[in-house]
Amino acid sequence: MKIKLIVSLLAAVALNAQATVVDFEDLSSLAPVGNGYAGFNWTSGGQGIYAIHKNYHPGSGYDLGTVSGSMTVLNWYAKSGNVISLAGPGTFKFNGAYWTSAWENQSIWFSGYKNGNLLYSSQKFALDTKNPLWIGLNWNDIDQLHIFNKETNQSHWAMDDFTFNEETKAVSAPGALALMGLGFAGLMLRRSRQN
């Protein structure tokens, strides 16, 4: 019985550790990604990150960079210095995303922050307009992801399948109740074995 309880606990932890993939399919084309969407605030150089349908510009990086479904997102007004941050308290692991340049080849690079402190900086990655590039950073314990591109003229990028794991946040009431329930079940099991 004890082994079954441990296996059940491990299965619950494994389910909670699964990555979340944000594919933007439930957004409207040419509309801003609203703050709070998927648990994040989406800003882009003060202009916002917008959703776009892949058929809006056929043959562009928006079209060819859409990996799943028909929607992707872009940096509005081609701004660099975009920030994606948790909408509430806690940290996340940024696993990665697919990136494509909309119109011309360019470079893209990233920084990861926690509480305003720089934790990570990436190398520069070359993007083209035809082949989505999976950039897997696997950065743990951050609350903000900063995205930079094209040192001189600004340029649009397309991003799809933003993949992350939520790492820490305040324990919710249902979570606390579940933990108490597990503790109570353990005590009852122990008591029944002693009798």
Task: Describe the protein in words.
The chain has 195 residues and is α+β, with helices and mostly antiparallel strands. The chain has one domain (20-194): Jelly Rolls. The protein has 3 helices and 12 strands. It has helices at residues 2-16, 61-64, 173-194; strands spanning 20-22, 40-44, 49-53, 71-75, 82-86, 91-101, 106-114, 117-121, 125-127, 133-142, 144-149, 157-168. Strands 1, 3, 4, 6, 10 and 12 form a 6-stranded antiparallel sheet that branches. Strands 2, 5, 7, 8, 9 and 11 form a 6-stranded antiparallel sheet that branches. The longest helix has 22 residues, at 173-194. The chain crosses the membrane at residues 171-189.
SSE inventory with pairings:
Blueprint: H1 2-16, E1 20-22, E2 40-44, E3 49-53, H2 61-64, E4 71-75, E5 82-86, E6 91-101, E7 106-114, E8 117-121, E9 125-127, E10 133-142, E11 144-149, E12 157-168, H3 173-194
Antiparallel strand pairs: 1-12, 2-5, 3-4, 4-12, 5-11, 6-10, 6-12, 7-8, 7-9, 7-11
Quickly list its features:
195 residues; alpha+beta; Jelly Rolls; 6-stranded antiparallel beta sheet; 12 strands; disordered N terminus
- Gap from first CA to last CA: 15 Å
Percent range for helical residues? 10-25%
Strand content: 35-45%
**Strand element count:** 12
| Helix run count | 3
| Overall mean confidence score, pLDDT | 83
Low-confidence stretches: 1-16
Q: How many structural domains are formed by the residues? A: 1
CATH class: Mainly Beta
Q: What is the alpha-carbon Rg in Å? A: 21 Å
Overall form = globular
What letter string, H or E per element, gives the SSE order? HEEEHEEEEEEEEEH
Class of secondary structure makeup: alpha+beta
